Amino acid sequence: MQPSVASMVESQEPTVTTRPNQYRVFPQRLLRLLAPFLLLCVAISFISIYLIRYFGFQTTLPRELASFQTCGNAGERNNLEHWIRPPTDLLHNMTDTELFWRASCVPQIKEYPFARVPKIAFLFLTRGPLPLAPLWERFFEGHEGLYSIYIHALPSYQLNFSSSSVFYQRQIPSQLTEWGMMNMCDAERRLLANALLDITNERFVLVSESCIPIYNFSFVYPYITKSKHSFMGAFDDPGPYGRGRYDYNMLPEVTMADWRKGAQWFEVDRKVAIYITEDTKFYPKFLNFCRPHACYTDEHYFPTMLTIRAPDLLANRSLTWTDWSRGGAHPATFGEADITVVFLRGLLEGQSCLYNDQTTSVCFLFARKFAPSALEPLLLLAPKYFGY
Ligand SMILES: *[C@@H]1O[C@H](CO)[C@@H](O)[C@H](O)[C@H]1NC(C)=O
Ligand SMILES: *[C@@H]1O[C@H](CO)[C@@H](O)[C@H](O)[C@H]1NC(C)=O
Ligand SMILES: *[C@@H]1O[C@H](CO)[C@@H](O)[C@H](O)[C@H]1NC(C)=O
Ligand SMILES: *[C@@H]1O[C@H](CO)[C@@H](O)[C@H](O)[C@H]1NC(C)=O
User: Fold this and answer.
1) Which parts of the chain span the membrane according to its record (predicted)?
2) Ligand 4 cavity residues, CB under 6 Å
3) Rounded to the nearest 5°, which phi and psi values hold at 181?
4) CB count in 10 Å sphere of residue 183
5) How far is the CA of 234 from the centre of ligand 3 (A)?
6) Which end of the chain has fewer CB atoms < 10 Å from its terminal CB, N or C?
């Protein structure tokens, strides 16, 4: 087509003599006669090319969609429902790299185009069984739709809850975790990332098998969801177990002045959860330069990294009460004989802290550590003292 256009246009020019012989043999009069027809042909060709392209797309698109739909449940991927419905099966086979990438996808429009009831995700980090589950079951009862549960146990351990339990099939794919090691933080990030896949999860509480709630759900839900801060313990400890664990190899990402310490039992909002999940900048520094027994990542990584990235979002205190008064490397564990009225009142009273910049006497919503033997007395006293 192109040569005919060229010959046709150039035939009317005086320079036509420079054309190759096969053009020159064409009589000038015939060419002039044929020119309008050639023009018309070229015009029609171009129009038809565009028409084919245009209608070609129009006719192939529905066919592609039709075959796409039959792969999954028909129509699912076409509507918003597909994007906002939480995953039905928690046992996906994504690697951590795949999972963290997926979980770090954030909508840039802040308003949700659907009625979104924010949920609190309870992240249970445990080695094996959840001996205090009956207490938690009672705590959650009647509040369906306002919470979700995720459990990270050792890979070899299968939790076996009946289908009527809130813990039924809430175990996520896990990996080996050891106290004080980076793989403990990996497990916490894995819990966060799995919970982030449900877009209605707005707040994320990390608890262990020895944690209990010390207020009822009706109290805990607004306390957490209305807080403008995330409850991450973070303080600057000038001593050997604080700044003494800092390693100058962490420069320039982490300075001594940034270095923070805090217990691992956090409560964070969605934004902070994504900061933790997406981090690739500070992670290698802590992996390489915060190692037992000189340093413990689970006490420093999140508090320090978040103090650098989002200090204004942190309450710098934890919601989980722990008794360190006995000294040593491990906090006190309370068993059957410890669960008295005086002890429970002590958990609930005599506190003072900041909540949304105001002083409050309710500083802890959860407490640890409780032995399995504490379950029976706790079940007896919870209605009166914890309100559930
Ligand atoms: C993940 O599971 C799907 C089926 O559920 C399978 O097709 C895929 O090969 C699996 N991928 C890996 C990496 O195991
Ligand atoms: C799980 O629990 C059911 C009853 O609740 C019991 O029949 C079954 O043997 C248990 N399975 C394992 C592996 O413990
Ligand atoms: C928490 O500490 C950071 C500095 O480490 C500070 O910027 C922030 O205001 C503190 N949060 C509250 C609620 O005081
Ligand atoms: C929940 O706890 C609060 C405060 O502790 C109490 O006022 C309220 O009555 C309790 N709610 C229920 C349903 O027991």
Assistant:
1) 30-52
2) 215-216, 218-219, 387
3) -95, 165
4) 17
5) 9
6) N
Pocket of ligand 3 (CB under 6 A): 229, 307, 311-312, 314-316
Read off the pLDDT of residues 141-189 as tens digits, 9 standing for 90 and up: 999 999 999 999 999 999 999 999 999 999 999 999 998 899 999 999 9
Q: Please give the distance, rounded to the nearest whole angstrom, from the Cα atom of residue 188 to the centre of ligand 2.
A: 28
* pLDDT recorded at residue 67: 39
Which residue CA neighbors atom 11 of ligand 2 most closely?
Answer: 160
242 part of a folded domain: yes
Best mutation site among 140, 216, 381 for ligand 4 pocket (most ligand atoms within 8 Å of CB): 216
Domain residue limits at 301: 81-318
Total count of domains within the chain: 1
- Enumerate the β-bridge partners of residue 148: 121
Residue by residue, DSSP assigns 333-385 as -B-GGG--HHHHHHHHSS--EEETTEEES---SEE--B-GGGHHHHHHHHHHH
- pLDDT of 204 reads 98
pLDDT, one tens digit per residue, over 342-374 is 999 999 998 999 999 999 999 999 999 999 999
pTM of the model: 0.81
